[in-house]
Design a protein that fits this description.
- The protein is an alpha/beta fold.
- It contains 19 helices and nine strands.
- The strands form two sheets. A seven-stranded mixed β-sheet has the order 3-2-1-4-5-6-7, sandwiched between helices. Strands 8-9 form a two-stranded antiparallel sheet.
- Helix 4 (78-87) links the parallel strand 4 (69-72) and strand 5.
- The longest helix has 34 residues, at 313-346.
- The radius of gyration is 25 Å and the shape is globular.
- The termini are far apart.
Length: 481
Amino acid sequence: MPADIGLIGLAVMGQNLALNLHDHGFRVAVHNRTTERITEYLAGPAAGTTITGADSITALAAALDRPRRILLMVKAGAAVDAVIAELLPHLEPGDIVIDGGNSHYADTARRVASLGASGIHFVGAGISGGEAGARHGPSIMPGGDPAAWPVIAPILQAIAAKVADGTPCCSWLGPGGAGHFVKMVHNGIEYGDMQLLAETYHFMRAGLKMTTDEIADGFDAWNRGRLESYLVEITAAVLRHHEDGAPVIDRILDAAGQKGTGRWTVEAALGMGQPLTLVAEAVFARAVSALKDERVAAAARLGGPEPAVAADRTAALADLEQALYASKIVSYAQGFMLLRSASVENGWDLDLGAIAQLWREGCIIRAAFLDSIRDAFAVTPAPANLLLAPAFADAVGAAQDGWRRTVARAVTAGIPVPASGSALAFFDSYRTARLPANLIQALRDYFGAHTYERTDRPRREWFHTDWTGAGGDAASGPDRA
């Protein structure tokens, strides 16, 4: 009997997705470039299932029901194009290729167009949840050729995570690279969340001199409140893990790696003129952490205060929780600003509330407060910014004093808090009706005749001043970058 879906790429995510598909009653055929992996998989994790192997692309294409549905779980970049090139001679108009990896959204848009010219429907589906999510229910973010959605929806929504009422964390996002763009922003927010948690841990360990078990207790307590989330939960679990009687966390080198999706998110924000400051600081914090040898040398040469917080621990921890929550709100507010901008620029018509719902279960950034984000965008008209939604405006307002005290304590003690500090700076900038950008415009006009707008004239009228008495007309047109 023909298989319902083919899967190419048997790394852990691919293996687990194939098992997930099988569990939901779908007939699955799998292929891997290294055919030994197929044999090992069928004899190991897939033993006792109806999953079948195909030792070539030709055999895989022949094993599939029409229209063919093929899920790629291979490394982003050239590997995806190579697999597509190998597949194409064996595909027919109406067949569907789904890229479930972390491809760049521009690559996905290119593939949608190029395969569409041959009648092949291409879908970029971001999949989040790690190994466990792939096995038991991930968050899936599909976009691309809309003609594919009615055919693949029953499969993807069946294997996706479900919220409490049974709604799948998988819905169509839009054409072109929409799905992979949303997954990219998810990963950028994930960078920000992890940096905020790392800064919070550092404040507790270095500033408040808490043990790892005490810090784990703190995160456990927070996970029973408004900060309930997967990342807070596993932070406590990581801190409690011991090896030979000592916390493993203390033996892990403080040099963080990255695969590029956080950087892509920041690059997209820069290209669209959106202030994704917290994620940017999270990316740069990883870059600084990688300078381990330089930092060790600098620690011996550059002086600073002793990293100790002179405050009552109970009060400081209460303020720290406020800072973490408020900073997290800013991070998501900035992420949704980028999603809104990309939706307008690309004509995607993204449903921001539905995206929050997609992230509610299954994915790495799943958190209780995503329900509130969904509700915030459900009203008409939707708020221009998440910070303006009543629930979040009130929450940040209530957290503001503790947030400021935490950042001040960290700065005074020489404890770096780039993410939470930048979140506070963004909040203060966003709530300030008149910023000092008028001076920037005056300086730009002085040395480059870039022109400026005036407060006593309508917007979009541009003026130039002859600042020195020796200048002429404006040398360049309006520039709002």
